[in-house]
Amino acid sequence: MKKKKEPLSADGSRSLASPLDSVFALATQLDGPRTDYGRRLSDFNVVGELGRGSFGTVFKVEARRFHNQVFVLKCIPINHMDQRQQRDALREVLILRKLSHPNIIRYYTSFLEDGCIYILMEYAAGGDLYSVIDSAITISVAPEGPEGEDEVFRGG
User: Which member of 39, 61, 134, 156 has the greatest number of CB atoms within 10 A?
Assistant: First the structure.
């Protein structure tokens, strides 16, 4: 019978008591290119909620220390997640940290507070890509009635 591997701690050892402990150990070490915007929820004024997903909530926030510069703060509650979901949440942060491209929303930092992973990112005033594409699509409707349908099938 195969022995089940214990989760790795932040330093690579296998000495932590539970999978949640390993998530907390890794998450507390997460920081990005800019940690001076804030490392606690109290460093931000929440302006409003931008949206909700299956794993978290996205807020529009202002950084108190930077003349209320606007950002997006994603909150991912991890207390009630199973081990795989916690790992996926951490993986999201680790991937975002590595991305750097002018056409990708910029990641600034992340931190753990009150059982949530918070991810601070660039705010895009125009909204998300789906909303922009959706609002740009126009659907032309054929004229009503049988003659309109014939017109469509004839290519006229």
Answer: 61
Name the least confident of 20-24, 33-37, 71-75.
Answer: 20-24
**φ and ψ at 31, to 5 degrees?**
-155, 155
Listed in sequence order, the residues at least 6 apart from 33 whose beta carbon sits closer than 8 Å to its beta carbon are 107, 108, 109
Q: What are the strands, taking DSSP E only, across the chain?
A: 44-52, 57-63, 69-77, 107-113, 116-122
The answer to whether 19 touches 7, Cβ cutoff 8 Å, is yes
Nearest to 40 by CA among 123, 114, 122: 114
Under CATH, domain 19-125 is a member of which superfamily?
Phosphorylase Kinase; domain 1 (3.30.200.20)
If one counts every other C-beta atom within 10 angstroms of the C-beta of residue 151, the result is 13
Q: Delimit the domains of the chain by residue range.
A: 19-125
pTM, rounded to two decimals: 0.67
Contact 46, 59 (CB under 8 A): yes
Mean pLDDT, the chain, rounded, equals 74
2: left (phi over 0), alpha (psi -120 to 50) or beta: beta
65 neighbors 44 (Cβ within 8 angstroms): no
